[in-house]
């Protein structure tokens, strides 16, 4: 290929890569909640979630999950499940540490693995503790653009993690 054709081709390639990288968006708060997961055990106590380890974007500029968004998803999901009556202090305190979000950089199917360490306390006493791992895969059918597939898979891994948390707590009976 001649030098004259290489420069425009290189410039066009850089522009396409730049546009695709800039398409990466942060996760959407409302997409982190698993929807209706019902608990059979209920308490009249409120729940307060405290989250750490999250970030808006990963080191590779892939969509992350902020502490605030995950906290809101946790609290609303736990109340919506019927396990807790409301959010706030004075009842149970759920500490969640987002230990790992493993995301692919490229691929047709984007599989995200997530691990969150949970600690449930009541009055300063630990009543339950567990690390929960979850996985979610988004395919080209979910979204054509790779960055959007990674975001959707990240949101799905968070939904699966919260749903499993509710199932685990339900067997523990707070």
List keywords for this structure.
174 residues, alpha+beta, Rossmann fold, 4-stranded mixed sheet, 3 helices, 4 strands, 35% helix, 25% strand
Number of DSSP E strands:
4
- SSE string: HEHEEEH
Q: Radius of gyration in whole Å, from Cα?
A: 20 Å
Total DSSP helices:
3
Supply the CATH architecture.
3-Layer(aba) Sandwich
Neighbour order of strands in the largest sheet: 1-2-3-4
State the helicity in percent bands.
25-40%
Number of domains: 1
CATH structural class: Alpha Beta
CATH superfamily label: ABC-type transport auxiliary lipoprotein component
> What is the molecular shape?
elongated
Q: Which consecutive residue ranges, at least 5 long each, have pLDDT under 50?
A: 8-23
Can you offer a commentary on this structure?
The protein is an alpha+beta fold. It has one domain: ABC-type transport auxiliary lipoprotein component (Rossmann fold, 3-Layer(aba) Sandwich), CATH 3.40.50. It is built from three helices and four strands. The chain has helices at residues 3-22, 67-80, 146-172; strands at 47-52, 92-102, 110-122, 125-138. A four-stranded mixed β-sheet has the order 1-2-3-4. A hairpin with a 2-residue loop joins strand 3 (110-122) and strand 4 (125-138). The longest helix is centred in the C-terminal third of the chain and has 27 residues, at 146-172.
């Amino acid at each position: 290929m001649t030098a004259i054709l290489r420069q425009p081709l290189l410039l066009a390639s850089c522009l396409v890569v730049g546009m695709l990288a800039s398409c990466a968006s942060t996760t959407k708060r409302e997409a982190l909640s698993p929807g209706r997961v019902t608990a059979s055990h209920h308490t009249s106590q409120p729940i307060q979630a405290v989250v750490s380890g999250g970030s808006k974007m990963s080191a590779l500029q892939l969509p992350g999950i902020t502490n605030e968004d995950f906290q809101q998803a946790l609290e609303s999901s736990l109340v919506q499940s019927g396990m807790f009556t409301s959010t706030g202090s004075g009842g149970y305190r759920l500490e969640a540490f987002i230990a790992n979000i493993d995301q692919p950089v490229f691929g047709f199917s984007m599989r995200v693995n997530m691990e969150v360490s949970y600690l449930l306390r009541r009055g300063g006493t630990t009543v339950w503790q567990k690390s929960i791992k979850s996985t979610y895969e988004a395919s080209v059918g979910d979204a054509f653009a790779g960055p959007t597939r990674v975001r959707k898979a990240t949101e799905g891994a968070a939904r699966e993690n919260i749903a499993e948390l509710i199932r685990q707590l339900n067997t523990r009976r707070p």
